[in-house]
Structures are given as structure tokens and as C-alpha cells.
Write a sequence for this structure.
């Protein structure tokens, strides 16, 4: 079959049509030849027998065969003279030939005794009939032999057969020529088409006209040319699209998707050019680092989409003031970079002052509310002594940091000896120390008691406070490291560390299955943690891991951080309160709109801001504020706590106005959490823990 597949159309037609027809014709001819031969043979045999019988009938009443005339008459009567392939012999009773017609022959003795018999010879068939006299006596008087010459009969038929085969061969040869011509008329255009297609493949735009084309091939050619045209259109279209996409990619690689401004990579490339220019040609270029002020508030109150819109609007407004030769870029978040080309410091200050002014006067409208923001700008002059682009951006960033530190919405020109920069350096160091302390558990938990003033049966609180161990084993207060943790977004990590370790400290108390005196451990949550959507899941996991009853835990959130993350905070409070956990609003009264937000925060306790408590016995306003807070809390059925209680007079005053709990150095100083808890359940002496509440 494989061999057939490799054959050309001509070869296939010849092999599959002509050859079988030839073979079949020859076979049929052969059968016919055999058949005819047999029929002829039997016809002749029959004829020979009839003739012999006829002759025997003619002579049967003779007593013997004699007389030439008589025999000739007999031969004539046989009517066999026109059958050249036969011989006829008349012999007497002794088998001596009396007369013959055709080639004479002798029949060997003894002759068979039958009256009629066919004797088979090598190339003859001899029909023998015995001749008898009739009445009165039945006497043998002779023999009549009729021979059929089989060889000549076969030869005659062979000639006819060869002639027929010749005719068939001739016919088939003519057919072959016809088949060859027809198949060539098919294969030739296919070959030409193949050549045309090869040329088409190597760049010809059209499949060229095939000379001896068939209608089918012409249709194929037209279709291919149509496909080719379509492909050319598609290719041109695709090329355009690729070019567009490449241009878009080039654009995207250099621009910020949100604002359309140049991006950080492109700015850094241009800064490098500027630095080279300064080093080679002493040109003067300025770089400014700009950061929007309190942008987080927009995101938190209006959502990120609104924040994006504000970034777009501010970028557009500032772009209008920036010269074509300058580069205004978005570096990420709410940070922008401005490269002022061929610009002196004084001019840069003038331009940035205008930009700052534009941001200050800009109002962002969202859902009917107007928002205002500021921008802090750090300026650095690109000088030849700057090592690289990284140093330019670091200096500008540092100057912007100083501008923030100076109260935001400021412009600051970079100066290496800035005190604030030194402070920032210290803070940066704290970042790695805090991370290390978290990994190596170098923090320790302290606590300060919060005791009931009105009803002694209420359980005390222990507010958990974090400290850090120093290398010499001393204790570092939180004021040294928490500001850095807040600035560098480490508060979530710290809060989680505190929650986990406070729970670890509590676990043994509940494991002992002792009837512990009721108490509540109070843990502070930073604003950053309140904005963390995964905090709730983390706290729940800690409750189940350490198996701590939820009603022994209270979380303290400050008013400002709760407000910034209001939705998340409300959800957190609702979910955990359902489990029995309590919530305390810390520093209450420090914000401007404390009372209005109180309605939305379902807390159990209010901790008055220490600033009202410290001077409550001397300052009437503080006293009035404390009373007001107490009155609002009572009407909302919220318990109050006063912190910073530093003397007996303050304690008495707070008790009188109805404050529920008190906390402060007068009552109790911070002590290690584990010790405080051990004292509480009485496993160690309670000597130092007793709060001075005997008033
Ligand atoms: N809408 C929006 N917000 C972003 C995008 N990238 C970063 N932010 C947010 O921008 C805020 C940047 O805040 P910071 O610059 O750290 O702080 P800030 O609130 O501006 O306060 P100061 O810079 O200290 O004045 C963060 O809340 C980020 O989540 C952004 O592409 N779109």
C-alpha cells in the first residue's frame, strides 16, 4: 500500500485501470478458448460418429466391401471432403485400408470388439465403427475410421486466440495513451500549481496563473489568491497593531498608569542624564521630592477610587505649571518627583512655592464633601559631588521628611546637618532593632492595674504595656521605639506579638482550672492594626489556640485610630463583643469630635484622656470636661476610666463625679505581666500589688 501511495497519478491510473483490464480480458479469452475448443472437439467427434454410422448403414447390406467405384461413392456420400482436419479410412474386415480420404493412417491391432468406439491417439481422436452385413447373416465386413486432427484444431484456435489478444493489447495501448493524456492534464497543472505556491511562499504576493489550467485548479487558484489578499490585509493590520502595542508598551514602561505622568524608572534615567550633565558641563539642575499630606485620610474616608481620582486631579493641576523641559513624575503612592532642568535654587524655591500653593487651594469634591490637602516638598541641588541617582533621591526624600516634620505643607532645602535628619537616622536604626526584637522575643510585657472606684466587686483590669530589653539586660521604654514603629508601619507586627504573648502568659492560669479571681487583661490596638482586615481572624485564632475565655480580655483602641478605620473597627468590635470580649475607647476627649463618634462605636468603657485628669483638682475646665464625659457615658451606660491618677485628691475627685475605674502611678506602677497575674491569683505575695484605694 505504501508503494501505491508513492505512485504518480499516471502510474496509478495505468496500474489500477489498464493492468487489471488486460489481465481480466486475457483470462476471459483463455476460458473462452478452452470452451470453444471443447465444443468444437465434441461437435467434430459427433460428426465423425454420425458420418461413420451413416457409412456403415449404407454398406450394411453388402457381403463385403469391394470395388473402388463403390468405395468412392461411399466417400462422396460421407461429404467429408471439405473438412481438411479430418481423415476417413475404410478398411476391410482384416483392417486393411481399402480407401481413404485425407491423410491416411493405420490403426494398430487388435481392434476393440465394440461396434462403435473412440480411440485416443496422441494427436488424433479416431472414431471406429464396425460394418456388418445385414440379413441373412450378421457378418463383419469392415471398419470405418474417422480421425479428428486435434493438433490442427488446437492450432487454429490458438491462432484465433493470439489474434484476439493482439486486438485487446492494441486497444489497451490506445487506452493507456488516453489515460496518460488525461492524467497528465490533471497532474501537469498540479505540478505548476505547486511551483507557483512555492514562489508564493517565498514572497510572491499572488499565486501566478497556471498555463494548462483546469477549471478546478482555476477555482483553487482564485481561492488561494483571495486567501492571500485576506492574509496580506490581516498581516498589514497585525503589523499596525503590533506597532501600536509596542508604542503603548514603550509608553507604559515610561509612564505611570494612573496619572499619565512619567514614572520612577524614567525619572531616574533623566536624573542620571542630569547628573552627568552637571559633572561634565557644570550645569545646574534641581530635584524636588513631593509627598501629599495626610493622603491616607482621603483613602480611608472616601475609598481608594476617590484617592486615585484626587491623585489624578492634583497631577493634572500641577502639570499645567511645570515647564516642558522639566520632568514631573509620580514615584508611587502620593509621592511625586520633579526635575527642574537648568534651574537655580532660588528659582526652584519659587516654583515649588507656587506648586505648594496650588495644592493648598485645591479642593477635592467627593459625594458632596470637600477635602483639602497640602504637599510637603524637599529640594536638593544636583551637584557634582553627588555619587549617583540614589543619593539624589535619598537627599530629596530626607528634605521632604524634614518638611513633614516641620508641620507638613512646607518646602525644605536639603542640608546635610539637619537635626531632623539625624533623628530620622536613629529611627531607621530602630526599624531593624524592632524586627530583630520580634524575631528573637526581645520584648517583655508589663502591665498596670486599673481598679474599680465605686463598686469593689467589679474585676480589676491589667493594661498590657510593651517594653524592650536592651543588650545589658535593662528595659527600654516604649516611647523610644513606638514612634519609629508607627512611622515605618511595624505596629501591626508589634500588636500581634503583644496579643500572642499576653495570651501565652494567661494560658497557664486557665489551664490550672483554678477558680481564679475575676480580672480583665486589656491590650492596646494601634490604628494600623485596626486597618488590618486580617486582624479579626488572627485574634480569633489566638483565642482558640491558647484557649483563653474571651470575657477575660479587653481591647483598647484610641479615638483617632478608630475614626480613621471606622468601618473595620466597628466590625471588629461587633464580632469580638459577640464572643464576650470587651472594648475600651482610649484617650477619649483628645479629638475634636469625640462625642459625635461615640454614638457609632459600641464600646464598653471610656478612658478619659489623661490631660483632663492630671490637673482635675486645680483646673475647672478639666473638671468640667471630666464631668461632661462622665455624664455622657452614664447616659449611654458606658463605664468610665480615668488614667494619670497621680495623687489622692485627684482620686477622691474622680470618685465623687462617679468615674468607675482609676489608673495611675498613685495606685500602681507598671510591673511585669506574669508577676502581676501570679499575684492576682495569689501564687506570690500580694504585698506590692495592693492598690491604694482605701479612701
Ligand atoms: N488611592 C491610592 N492610594 C494609594 C496608592 N498608592 C498608595 N496609596 C496610599 O497612599 C497613602 C500614603 O500615605 P503616606 O504618604 O504614607 O501617609 P500620608 O497619609 O500621606 O501622611 P503623611 O505623608 O505623613 O503626611 C497610603 O494610605 C497608601 O495606601 C494609589 O495608587 N492610589
Amino acid at each position: 500500500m505504501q508503494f501505491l501511495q508513492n505512485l504518480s497519478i499516471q502510474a496509478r491510473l495505468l496500474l489500477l485501470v489498464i493492468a487489471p483490464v488486460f489481465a481480466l480480458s486475457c483470462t476471459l479469452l483463455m476460458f473462452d478458448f478452452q470452451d470453444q475448443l471443447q465444443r468444437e472437439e465434441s461437435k467434430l467427434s459427433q460428426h465423425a460418429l454420425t458420418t461413420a454410422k451413416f457409412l456403415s448403414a449404407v454398406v450394411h447390406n453388402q457381403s463385403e466391401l469391394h470395388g473402388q467405384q463403390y468405395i468412392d461413392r461411399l466417400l462422396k456420400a460421407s461429404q467429408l471432403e471439405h473438412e481438411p482436419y479430418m481423415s476417413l479410412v475404410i478398411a476391410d474386415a482384416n483392417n486393411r485400408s481399402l480407401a481413404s480420404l485425407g491423410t491416411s493412417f493405420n490403426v494398430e491391432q487388435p481392434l476393440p470388439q465394440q461396434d462403435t468406439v473412440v480411440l485416443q491417439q496422441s494427436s488424433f481422436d479416431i472414431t471406429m465403427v464396425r460394418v456388418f452385413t445385414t440379413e441373412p447373416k450378421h457378418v463383419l465386413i469392415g471398419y470405418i475410421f474417422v480421425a479428428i486432427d486435434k493438433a490442427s484444431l488446437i492450432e487454429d484456435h490458438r491462432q484465433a486466440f493470439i489474434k484476439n489478444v493482439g486486438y485487446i493489447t492494441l486497444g489497451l495501448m490506445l487506452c493507456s495513451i488516453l489515460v496518460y493524456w488525461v492524467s497528465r492534464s490533471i497532474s501537469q497543472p498540479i505540478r505548476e500549481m505547486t511551483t507557483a505556491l512555492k514562489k508564493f511562499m517565498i514572497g510572491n504576493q499572488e499565486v501566478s496563473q497556471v498555463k494548462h489550467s483546469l477549471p478546478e485548479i482555476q477555482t483553487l487558484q482564485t481561492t488561494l489568491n483571495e486567501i492571500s489578499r485576506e492574509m496580506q490585509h490581516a498581516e498589514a493590520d497585525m503589523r499596525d497593531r503590533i506597532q501600536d502595542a509596542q508604542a503603548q508598551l514603550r509608553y507604559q514602561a515610561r509612564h505611570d498608569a494612573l496619572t499619565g505622568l512619567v514614572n520612577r524608572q524614567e525619572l531616574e534615567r533623566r536624573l542620571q542624564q542630569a547628573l552627568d550633565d552637571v559633572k561634565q558641563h557644570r550645569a545646574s539642575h534641581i530635584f524636588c521630592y513631593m509627598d501629599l499630606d495626610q493622603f491616607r485620610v482621603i483613602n480611608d474616608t472616601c475609598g481608594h477610587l476617590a484617592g486615585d481620582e484626587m491623585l489624578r486631579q492634583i497631577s493634572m493641576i500641577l502639570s499645567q505649571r511645570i515647564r516642558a523641559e522639566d520632568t514631573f513624575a509620580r514615584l508611587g503612592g502620593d509621592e511625586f518627583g520633579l526635575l527642574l532642568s537648568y534651574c537655580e535654587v532660588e528659582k526652584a524655591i519659587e516654583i515649588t512655592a507656587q506648586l505648594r500653593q496650588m495644592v493648598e487651594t485645591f479642593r477635592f469634591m467627593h459625594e458632596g464633601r470637600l477635602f483639602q490637602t497640602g504637599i510637603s516638598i524637599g529640594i536638593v541641588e544636583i551637584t557634582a559631588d553627588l555619587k549617583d541617582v540614589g543619593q539624589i533621591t535619598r537627599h530629596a526624600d530626607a528634605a521632604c521628611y524634614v518638611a513633614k516634620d516641620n508641620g507638613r505643607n512646607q518646602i525644605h532645602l536639603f542640608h546635610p546637618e539637619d537635626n531632623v535628619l539625624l533623628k530620622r537616622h536613629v529611627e531607621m536604626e530602630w526599624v531593624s532593632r524592632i524586627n530583630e526584637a520580634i524575631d528573637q522575643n526581645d520584648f517583655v510585657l508589663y502591665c498596670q492595674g486599673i481598679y474599680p472606684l465605686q463598686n469593689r466587686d467589679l474585676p480589676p483590669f491589667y493594661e498590657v504595656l510593651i517594653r524592650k530589653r536592651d543588650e545589658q539586660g535593662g528595659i527600654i521604654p516604649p516611647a523610644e521605639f513606638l514612634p519609629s514603629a508607627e512611622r515605618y508601619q511595624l505596629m501591626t507586627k508589634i500588636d500581634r506579638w503583644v496579643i500572642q504573648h499576653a495570651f501565652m502568659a494567661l494560658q497557664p492560669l486557665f489551664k490550672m482550672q483554678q477558680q481564679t479571681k475575676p480580672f480583665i487583661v486589656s491590650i492596646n490596638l494601634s490604628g494600623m492594626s485596626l486597618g488590618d482586615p486580617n486582624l479579626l481572624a488572627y485574634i480569633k485564632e489566638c483565642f482558640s489556640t491558647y484557649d483563653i475565655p474571651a470575657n477575660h480580655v479587653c481591647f483598647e483602641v484610641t479615638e483617632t485610630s478608630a475614626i480613621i478605620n471606622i468601618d473595620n473597627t466597628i466590625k471588629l468590635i461587633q464580632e469580638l463583643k459577640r464572643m464576650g470580649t470587651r472594648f475600651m475607647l482610649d484617650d477619649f476627649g483628645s479629638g475634636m469630635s469625640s462625642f459625635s463618634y461615640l454614638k457609632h462605636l459600641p464600646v464598653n468603657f471610656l478612658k478619659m484622656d489623661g490631660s483632663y485628669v492630671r490637673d482635675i483638682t486645680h483646673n475647672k475646665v478639666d473638671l468640667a470636661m471630666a464631668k461632661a464625659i462622665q455624664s455622657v457615658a452614664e447616659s449611654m451606660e458606658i463605664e468610665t476610666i480615668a488614667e494619670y491618677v497621680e495623687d489622692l485628691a485627684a482620686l477622691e475627685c474622680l470618685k465623687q463625679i462617679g468615674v468607675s475605674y482609676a489608673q495611675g502611678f498613685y495606685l500602681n506602677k507598671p510591673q511585669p505581666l506574669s508577676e502581676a497575674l501570679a499575684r492576682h491569683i495569689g501564687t506570690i505575695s500580694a504585698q506590692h500589688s495592693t492598690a491604694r484605694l482605701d479612701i
